[in-house]
Amino acid sequence: MGRLTATSPPPARARAVVRRLTATYPDAVISLRYETGWQLLVAVVLSAQCTDERVNQVTPALFRRFPDPTSVLNGSVEELEELVRPTGFYRNKARSIWRGATYLLEHHDGELPRTTRELVRVPGAGRKTAAVVLGEAFGIAEGIAVDTHAGRLSRRLGLITETDPVQAERSLMVIVERRSWIAWTHLLIAHGRAVCRSRVPRCDGCVLRDICPEGRQRLSVARRHPRARPAAPRDSSRAAPGMVSSWTDLTSSSTPTASHGTPTA
Ligand code: SF4
Question: 221 C-alpha to center of ligand 1: Å?
Fold first, then answer.
């Protein structure tokens, strides 16, 4: 096999991305803490417009009080709201957790289903949440969770062009080997936070620069115009790197912005 370049076929470059980022970030895993699939689902819901760190501060007490869907329905929404309040948008999040618990008890005896088709029917869960929960809690790779970082990096690497997460996931599932679907998100999140940041990617020190079209372009501009300011990102994904969690499908567009808690970032 010849040397890979920025114009090599996307599947070959995707394999190289996995190989190199695995070597660079051997400990890249989800930072939300949980013990069961239900708890992971709840943590993902809470991570909307909130940092994983803040979610991890809230969940120990929350999971002690509400370890499973049954305990949620034996409690009250008001108690839920109080416990999740520090994560922001707490009324909406508490309602999602309550509705999710109700749905799971009515349709799945309180257990989490293990297919994307069934999981996306749980209130508060969409394809991204389903991919995260199935991959993390059960080791089932049925999709790729395309969060802010995974989407931005996949586009910069020229592997996909889509900005819509569902379309982006569909394209990535063709390009990325299935055995790497779960790791893909974690590796790209780690790299997006450390190096390929939204506003100013650090292309000169990036382990992917020889296979990245955008990196090649940015480095070429920097060489020709050494005093030029870094180019503005072509992406619209401008979440503060390393700050706001990007796991959840419960985004700001579905989160009330008035009188329902305060966004934390
Ligand atoms: S070369 Fe630059 S744009 Fe490409 S992945 Fe690395 S940091 Fe991101």
Answer: 14
Catalytic residue at 93?
no
Contact between residue 114 and residue 134 where contact means Cβ atoms under 8 Å apart? yes
CATH level 3 topology of 10-28+146-224: Endonuclease Iii, domain 2 (1.10.1670)
Extents of the domains making up the chain: 10-28+146-224, 37-143
Q: Give me the mean pLDDT over the 89-103 stretch.
A: 97
* pLDDT given for residue 230 in this prediction: 54
Q: Is 13 in the pocket of ligand 1 (CB under 6 A)?
A: no
Residue-level length of the chain: 265
Give 3-state DSSP helix, strand, coil % of the chain, rounded to 5.
Answer: 55, 0, 45
Q: Which of 25, 214, 237 to mutate to test the pocket of ligand 1 (most atoms within 8 A of CB)?
A: 214
pLDDT at 224: 87
Query: What is the DSSP secondary-structure string of 2-66?
Result: PPP-TTS-HHHHHHHHHHHHHHH-TT-------SSHHHHHHHHHHTTTS-HHHHHHHHHHHHHH-
Tell me which architecture the domain covering 37-143 has in CATH. Answer: Orthogonal Bundle (1.10)
What does the DSSP 8-state code read for residue 209? Answer: G
